[in-house]
Write the structure tokens for this entry.
Amino acid sequence: MKELKILAVLVIFTLVTYIGIEPFAHTQLSPHTAPADFNYEQEDTALAKVRIEEAKAALTKAEANLAKQPDNENLAKAVQGAKQDLEARENDLSAYKTLWEQVNAISTLNGNAESGAELFVACTACHGLKSQGFEAPFDNAMSSESYGVVIPDLSLAGAVYDKKFLAALIINPTQALKLSKKFNDENPFPMTPFYGFGEDLNQEVADIIAYLKSVTPQNISDKETFDTACVRCHDIKYDAFYSPSEKSALKRYMGSNPPDLSMMIRSRGAEYLESFINDPQKKLDGTAMPRVGLTKEHTQKVINYLDKIGDSKKDERRNVGIGMVIFFAILAFFAYKWKNGVWRELH
């Protein structure tokens, strides 16, 4: 009976720690964010509104602090900075609304793949399309030195990337990739917007997307999706898969070298990765990592690949864990029977 009381106390304290303390600690270390939303228009609008509310709260707090110490220059600068941040957040919301209005107009059009093939010639000034025999105009070294990162081949772009995201990327790459904090008029993004050939711009964009979709193969493996979406920046040494971008150029471009992703699935988990890939800004506001714009299917392919390479022993580990639990349950039963038989007379 004494042992059962001790066990009950341990169980209660464990439950209090796990249910009461652990979730609170988790909310502080990893604040809740909305789950991945592959409706990118809705995603952008919702997050922009959240950031506006955060900026308003920060401004209110800064103004309250200044009211207590009106002569404090640092607090006055903090108020001014908070106002500028709020203005920038409101401008972001306006810019996203403008962008997605145009994208929605493009999405209603029927693209012509043949016309898109002719228009795509403009893209070959930078991009390769190996599936159609278009080699990239720059080798990896020259591309890294000129742009900071190897320019992507677009052979799989029509399937891997969300159709509306592709339209947004073509007409306003900085806004679509969520890099407006890093790139601006003084520091322009390497990829320029598509201004068209003087005809209907929206129709031309629709035609290019139709062409990219028409030349994309049907079956794309997890590794091929990962290669298209991630390898320009990230290594995954567990599979001897390394970024073709030159490291020093990539560091200058990104601000730091992107991490190796070999252990990312085990350190972060699939749910976190889905949300992060969907929109890095939700998890790390201001991060230099661009939004990738993958479809839900191909986001899962990236996660599947990371799971296969980074946690290949997961099933084996789970089976061993279950076996150990069963073993210790049986051991505990026989230990109790042995103790009861040997020491019963002394209690």
The radius of gyration is 27 Å. The chain is about 65% helix and 0% strand.
